[in-house]
Amino acid sequence: MRQHVNPLSQFFQLPLSLPSKSLIFKDSYYPIHIDIGSAKGEFLIQLALKHPNWNFLGLEIREPLVISSERKRKKLELENLKFLYCNVNVSLDEWLSDLDYDQLKRVSIQFPDPWFKRKHIKRRVVKNSLINSIARHISKEGELFIQSDILRLVESMVNVIDKSTYFNRKYVKGLKWLNKNPYEASTDRELFVLHKNLPVYRAMYTRNETPLVK
Asked: Spelled out in words, what is the top-level CATH class assigned to the domain 28-207?
Protein backbone atom coordinates (compact mmCIF):
# COMPACT_ATOMS: atom_id res chain seq x y z
CA MET A 1 0.00 0.00 0.00
CA ARG A 2 1.29 3.46 -0.86
CA GLN A 3 2.25 5.57 2.13
CA HIS A 4 0.88 8.71 0.50
CA VAL A 5 -1.92 9.47 -1.92
CA ASN A 6 -2.44 12.76 -3.71
CA PRO A 7 -5.66 14.23 -2.26
CA LEU A 8 -5.85 16.71 -5.14
CA SER A 9 -6.00 14.05 -7.85
CA GLN A 10 -9.28 13.96 -9.73
CA PHE A 11 -10.21 10.61 -8.18
CA PHE A 12 -10.09 11.97 -4.63
CA GLN A 13 -12.02 15.10 -5.57
CA LEU A 14 -15.18 13.10 -6.16
CA PRO A 15 -17.51 13.80 -3.21
CA LEU A 16 -18.66 10.77 -1.24
CA SER A 17 -22.01 10.77 0.52
CA LEU A 18 -21.09 9.40 3.93
CA PRO A 19 -23.73 7.35 5.78
CA SER A 20 -25.64 9.25 8.45
CA LYS A 21 -24.77 8.89 12.12
CA SER A 22 -27.96 6.90 12.73
CA LEU A 23 -26.74 4.24 10.30
CA ILE A 24 -23.24 3.86 11.70
CA PHE A 25 -23.73 4.21 15.47
CA LYS A 26 -26.07 2.15 17.65
CA ASP A 27 -26.64 5.10 20.00
CA SER A 28 -26.35 8.00 17.58
CA TYR A 29 -27.06 10.68 20.19
CA TYR A 30 -23.77 10.20 22.07
CA PRO A 31 -21.09 12.93 21.82
CA ILE A 32 -18.72 12.46 18.89
CA HIS A 33 -14.94 12.44 18.52
CA ILE A 34 -13.64 12.50 14.92
CA ASP A 35 -10.08 11.43 14.14
CA ILE A 36 -8.96 12.77 10.75
CA GLY A 37 -6.39 10.47 9.17
CA SER A 38 -7.15 7.50 11.40
CA ALA A 39 -4.54 5.24 9.71
CA LYS A 40 -4.54 1.77 11.35
CA GLY A 41 -7.27 2.82 13.77
CA GLU A 42 -5.56 1.80 17.00
CA PHE A 43 -6.01 5.23 18.62
CA LEU A 44 -9.80 5.21 18.27
CA ILE A 45 -10.13 1.51 19.08
CA GLN A 46 -8.47 2.17 22.45
CA LEU A 47 -10.75 5.13 23.15
CA ALA A 48 -13.92 3.33 22.05
CA LEU A 49 -13.16 0.46 24.43
CA LYS A 50 -12.63 2.84 27.34
CA HIS A 51 -15.52 5.22 26.64
CA PRO A 52 -18.70 3.33 25.69
CA ASN A 53 -20.81 6.49 26.09
CA TRP A 54 -18.99 8.28 23.26
CA ASN A 55 -19.12 7.71 19.51
CA PHE A 56 -15.86 7.70 17.56
CA LEU A 57 -15.43 8.22 13.82
CA GLY A 58 -12.16 7.59 12.00
CA LEU A 59 -11.77 9.14 8.54
CA GLU A 60 -8.98 7.98 6.25
CA ILE A 61 -8.14 8.64 2.58
CA ARG A 62 -6.30 5.32 2.13
CA GLU A 63 -9.05 2.77 1.62
CA PRO A 64 -7.00 -0.37 2.50
CA LEU A 65 -6.40 1.08 5.97
CA VAL A 66 -10.13 1.66 6.42
CA ILE A 67 -10.86 -1.94 5.44
CA SER A 68 -8.26 -3.20 7.91
CA SER A 69 -9.51 -0.93 10.71
CA GLU A 70 -13.11 -1.98 10.12
CA ARG A 71 -12.10 -5.61 10.32
CA LYS A 72 -10.58 -5.02 13.76
CA ARG A 73 -13.59 -2.99 14.90
CA LYS A 74 -16.04 -5.71 13.92
CA LYS A 75 -13.98 -8.38 15.64
CA LEU A 76 -14.21 -6.35 18.86
CA GLU A 77 -17.94 -5.70 18.27
CA LEU A 78 -17.55 -1.99 18.89
CA GLU A 79 -20.83 -0.28 18.04
CA ASN A 80 -19.65 3.16 19.14
CA LEU A 81 -16.89 3.25 16.52
CA LYS A 82 -16.80 3.45 12.74
CA PHE A 83 -14.08 3.93 10.12
CA LEU A 84 -14.96 5.54 6.80
CA TYR A 85 -13.05 6.17 3.60
CA CYS A 86 -13.12 9.72 2.24
CA ASN A 87 -11.22 12.91 1.49
CA VAL A 88 -12.22 15.10 4.43
CA ASN A 89 -11.65 18.30 2.47
CA VAL A 90 -14.33 17.19 0.01
CA SER A 91 -16.85 15.10 1.96
CA LEU A 92 -16.76 15.98 5.67
CA ASP A 93 -18.75 19.22 5.82
CA GLU A 94 -21.96 17.64 4.51
CA TRP A 95 -21.74 14.87 7.12
CA LEU A 96 -21.14 17.36 9.94
CA SER A 97 -24.21 19.36 8.95
CA ASP A 98 -26.37 16.34 9.87
CA LEU A 99 -25.22 16.28 13.51
CA ASP A 100 -27.31 17.49 16.39
CA TYR A 101 -26.42 20.87 17.84
CA ASP A 102 -23.44 20.64 20.22
CA GLN A 103 -22.83 16.95 19.43
CA LEU A 104 -19.35 17.21 17.91
CA LYS A 105 -17.08 17.53 20.94
CA ARG A 106 -13.59 16.58 19.75
CA VAL A 107 -11.55 16.48 16.55
CA SER A 108 -8.01 15.12 16.34
CA ILE A 109 -5.53 15.41 13.46
CA GLN A 110 -2.43 13.35 14.18
CA PHE A 111 0.74 12.87 12.17
CA PRO A 112 -0.74 13.85 8.79
CA ASP A 113 1.29 13.43 5.60
CA PRO A 114 3.93 16.20 5.63
CA TRP A 115 4.24 16.88 1.88
CA PHE A 116 7.63 18.57 2.24
CA LYS A 117 8.13 19.97 -1.27
CA ARG A 118 6.89 23.51 -1.70
CA LYS A 119 4.84 22.59 -4.76
CA HIS A 120 3.12 19.85 -2.73
CA ILE A 121 2.19 21.94 0.33
CA LYS A 122 -1.29 22.47 -1.13
CA ARG A 123 -1.89 18.73 -0.60
CA ARG A 124 -1.70 19.01 3.19
CA VAL A 125 -4.92 18.16 4.98
CA VAL A 126 -5.14 21.21 7.27
CA LYS A 127 -6.57 23.98 5.13
CA ASN A 128 -8.65 27.06 5.91
CA SER A 129 -11.75 25.36 4.53
CA LEU A 130 -11.35 22.34 6.83
CA ILE A 131 -10.75 24.44 9.95
CA ASN A 132 -13.75 26.61 9.08
CA SER A 133 -15.89 23.52 8.67
CA ILE A 134 -14.82 22.14 12.02
CA ALA A 135 -15.42 25.53 13.66
CA ARG A 136 -18.88 25.69 12.12
CA HIS A 137 -20.02 22.44 13.69
CA ILE A 138 -17.99 21.80 16.84
CA SER A 139 -19.52 22.62 20.21
CA LYS A 140 -18.50 25.63 22.27
CA GLU A 141 -15.30 24.68 24.11
CA GLY A 142 -15.02 21.65 21.82
CA GLU A 143 -11.47 20.35 21.45
CA LEU A 144 -9.23 20.36 18.37
CA PHE A 145 -6.05 18.38 19.00
CA ILE A 146 -3.09 18.22 16.61
CA GLN A 147 0.28 16.51 16.82
CA SER A 148 3.21 15.58 14.61
CA ASP A 149 6.86 14.65 14.91
CA ILE A 150 7.72 17.14 12.14
CA LEU A 151 8.10 20.64 13.55
CA ARG A 152 7.75 22.43 10.23
CA LEU A 153 4.44 20.66 9.58
CA VAL A 154 2.90 21.25 12.99
CA GLU A 155 3.91 24.92 12.83
CA SER A 156 2.10 25.16 9.51
CA MET A 157 -1.00 23.58 11.06
CA VAL A 158 -0.84 25.97 14.01
CA ASN A 159 -0.52 28.91 11.64
CA VAL A 160 -3.69 27.94 9.75
CA ILE A 161 -5.68 27.39 12.97
CA ASP A 162 -4.45 30.61 14.60
CA LYS A 163 -5.29 32.69 11.54
CA SER A 164 -8.86 31.39 11.59
CA THR A 165 -9.42 33.11 15.00
CA TYR A 166 -12.09 30.50 15.89
CA PHE A 167 -9.97 28.54 18.35
CA ASN A 168 -8.01 29.37 21.49
CA ARG A 169 -4.82 27.48 22.10
CA LYS A 170 -4.25 25.84 25.48
CA TYR A 171 -0.88 26.17 27.16
CA VAL A 172 0.42 24.15 30.09
CA LYS A 173 2.81 25.90 32.50
CA GLY A 174 4.10 28.17 29.76
CA LEU A 175 5.21 25.33 27.47
CA LYS A 176 4.94 25.97 23.76
CA TRP A 177 3.99 22.33 23.08
CA LEU A 178 2.06 19.90 25.25
CA ASN A 179 4.44 17.42 26.82
CA LYS A 180 2.02 14.49 26.58
CA ASN A 181 -1.00 13.27 24.70
CA PRO A 182 -4.10 14.42 26.64
CA TYR A 183 -6.06 11.28 25.72
CA GLU A 184 -5.71 7.76 27.03
CA ALA A 185 -4.57 6.36 23.70
CA SER A 186 -1.73 6.63 21.20
CA THR A 187 -1.37 6.17 17.46
CA ASP A 188 1.10 3.69 15.98
CA ARG A 189 3.18 6.59 14.70
CA GLU A 190 3.29 8.24 18.12
CA LEU A 191 4.51 5.05 19.78
CA PHE A 192 7.14 4.58 17.05
CA VAL A 193 8.49 8.12 17.49
CA LEU A 194 8.53 7.95 21.28
CA HIS A 195 10.29 4.58 21.19
CA LYS A 196 13.10 6.27 19.28
CA ASN A 197 13.23 9.06 21.88
CA LEU A 198 12.31 11.67 19.29
CA PRO A 199 10.15 14.72 20.02
CA VAL A 200 6.43 14.96 19.35
CA TYR A 201 4.92 18.42 18.94
CA ARG A 202 1.36 18.73 20.26
CA ALA A 203 -1.19 21.51 20.57
CA MET A 204 -4.72 21.59 21.95
CA TYR A 205 -7.33 24.16 20.94
CA THR A 206 -10.83 24.91 22.17
CA ARG A 207 -13.58 26.57 20.16
CA ASN A 208 -14.21 30.15 21.25
CA GLU A 209 -17.29 32.33 20.79
CA THR A 210 -16.13 34.03 17.59
CA PRO A 211 -19.02 33.85 15.08
CA LEU A 212 -18.12 32.10 11.86
CA VAL A 213 -17.73 34.45 8.92
CA LYS A 214 -19.81 33.10 6.02
From this structure: alpha beta
